[in-house]
Structures are given as structure tokens and as C-alpha cells.
From TrEMBL:
Coiled coil: none annotated. InterPro entries: LysR_HTH_N, LysR_subst-bd, WH-like_DNA-bd_sf, WH_DNA-bd_sf. It comes from the Bacteria. The lineage of its organism: Bacteria, Pseudomonadati, Pseudomonadota, Gammaproteobacteria, Enterobacterales. The keyword Transcription regulation applies. The keyword rRNA processing does not apply. This is LysR family transcriptional regulator. Residues 1-58 form the HTH lysR-type domain. Belongs to the LysR transcriptional regulatory family. Keywords: DNA-binding, Transcription, Transcription regulation.
Length: 295
């Protein structure tokens, strides 16, 4: 049984007339009649009652019509789904997010534009630390990831920078320097510095740590927080100070004041990362939207 035979039968069943069905299908009537007869022979029972002015469905024909409609619908759906996935306009895209990009407005502006342009695409997202993101991207568990640079392992992937951010100083409210817009790291060298674990983002950790050590901080006064985001909560609790990306200034916590760094040389990039070989069509669509967003 071929799918076209089902379509022939459905058209005859809906028009209840061989001539009109043949016209709708764009074929002549004799071949259509022959194909329906072959279908009935294959099934082993008449589906239509031939009458002078048309046809009528038998009981078997009515039952078969219901199933034929469902089969054709599923076949059409499968065809469209496969074509959509091939074009990257439907299916799934697996995206990873570094925990520290959660407040990066350009990232979620891009995601919003992607969903607007490709509403049939299902976004499956996962938030992880940088080390896990890079590993999952390498292993093919992610199609792409939004990461924070510097990141040594990111050199194994294609990268496109989305935004560049200054690092800022988060101080507890009431700190002697909390009223100042700009603060020198040298003046804070005796403070406890709250840092995320090195394995979360090794290159960024080294950048921040080395800058602070040059300013007079000692590693003995480093206090570990689970993530960059959680370091803000610890600052608000009075545990110390922290250096955080500028986008985290939007966190509304009355116990925290965020100041600029005097003579700041600390910058970090948010980047879109994807594998060198065979990127999915959905990833290519994201890249095209990203290029449009930056222009």
C-alpha cells in the first residue's frame, strides 16, 4: 500500500465522485478507478459502492477513511518536521549558559529575537560553570553556549563576542568607601576578597586574582563562594568584598553597593561559542541574528 493510494481514496471519499476526484488530483479517471480497485483488492473488501451518479462509502470504507486521514496527516507532519529540522526552523537547540552571564542583556535579547523568528524551535537550556559547559560543548551535548571570557579552553571553539563588560567592586552597604563612585583596589587590600572557585572559570579567576594581588591583596584573605552570583549574597551578609561583572549591577540588594574600579584594567567578554565542525542550521540562524544585532 502506497501513500498516494491513500490520498486517492481520501479524495474520492470526500468528493463521492470519481470524475471530480480525478480533476482534483490532476489525473484521468480510468487510472484513478484502477488504483482504487487495487487498494480494495489489497485490503480484501470493497471500500466504495459504485452508483450511477457517484459513489458511496461502505462501512469498511468509512472506517478506513478515518485511519487513512490520520496516516496521511502523520506522514505530512513527519515530512514538514524533517524539512523544518533540516532548515533549522523547527526541532530543538541545546544551549548552555555560564552562571555569570545570567544578567547579560544582549544574551537574552538575542534569545528573544531567535524565538520571534523561529517560534517552532524548542530551546533546551542548561546553566553550568565554565568547565562543564566547555566539556559538554566538546562532547556534543550542547549545540552552543554563552560563556564568559577569558577562558583558556574556549580556544578549541569558534567564538563571537556579544558584549564587553567592566569588572566592578561590590561592597557591603555602610562600608567606608561605599559612598564613593570610584574606589582604588589598593585601598581595599586589607579586605576579605570573596572569590568563586577557580574551577568555575580558571582564566577569569586568574585575571581577577593576579590583579588584586598586584594591588596588595593576599590569597590568605580570599574567601570562596560557590559561584560569581552567590558572591554578591556573601557581600551583602558582610563577609567581604567581591569583583563582579558590570551586568550584575542590576541586582537589587539594599545591603550591597557597587562601585567602579579606579584606573580599571579589568574587563571580561560575554561570547557565543560553538564547535568548529558541522554547526547545526539553528546555530547558523543564531549567528546570523547576532550579526544583525551588532550592526
Amino acid at each position: 500500500m502506497e501513500l498516494r493510494h491513500l490520498r486517492y481514496f481520501i479524495t474520492v471519499a470526500e468528493t463521492l465522485h470519481f470524475t471530480r476526484a480525478a480533476e482534483a488530483l490532476g489525473i484521468s479517471q480510468p487510472p484513478l478507478s484502477q488504483q482504487i480497485q487495487r487498494l480494495e483488492h489489497e485490503i480484501g473488501t470493497p471500500l466504495l459502492k459504485r452508483q450511477t451518479r457517484g459513489v458511496e462509502l461502505t462501512e469498511a470504507g468509512k472506517a478506513f477513511l478515518s485511519d487513512a486521514l490520520e496516516i496521511v496527516h502523520l506522514a505530512d507532519h513527519a515530512l514538514e518536521r524533517a524539512r523544518g529540522m533540516a532548515r533549522g526552523i523547527s526541532g530543538q537547540i541545546q544551549l548552555g549558559f555560564a552562571s555569570s552571564v545570567a544578567f547579560g542583556a544582549p544574551v537574552f535579547e538575542l534569545i528573544h529575537r531567535f524565538k520571534t523568528h523561529y517560534p517552532a524551535m524548542e530551546l533546551i537550556t542548561r546553566e553550568e560553570n565554565m568547565a562543564l559547559l566547555m566539556q559538554d560543548l566538546h562532547d556534543g551535548l550542547l549545540d552552543a553556549a554563552f560563556i564568559r571570557l577569558p577562558c583558556e579552553s574556549s580556544k578549541s571553539f569558534n567564538l563571537k563576542v556579544i558584549a564587553t563588560e567592566r569588572m566592578m567592586i561590590a561592597l557591603p552597604a555602610g562600608h567606608p568607601y561605599s559612598h564613593q563612585r570610584t574606589v582604588s583596589l589598593v585601598h581595599l587590600a586589607d579586605e576579605t576578597l570573596i572569590m568563586f572557585p577557580r574551577e568555575v572559570a580558571p582564566s577569569l579567576y586568574e585575571l581577577i586574582a593576579s590583579t588584586c594581588i598586584r594591588a596588595g591583596f593576599t590569597t590568605a584573605r580570599f574567601l570562596q563562594a560557590p559561584q560569581i552570583m552567590s558572591s554578591l549574597g556573601m557581600v551583602g551578609a558582610g563577609c567581604g568584598i567581591a569583583l563582579v561583572p558590570e551586568s550584575m549591577c542590576c541586582v537589587n540588594n539594599p545591603n550591597i553597593v557597587i562601585c567602579e574600579i579606579e584606573n580599571n584594567t579589568l574587563y571580561t567578554d560575554i561570547a557565543f561559542a560553538w564547535r568548529h565542525r558541522n554547526p547545526s542550521k539553528a546555530v547558523l540562524h543564531l549567528l546570523k541574528l547576532l550579526d544583525a544585532q551588532r550592526n
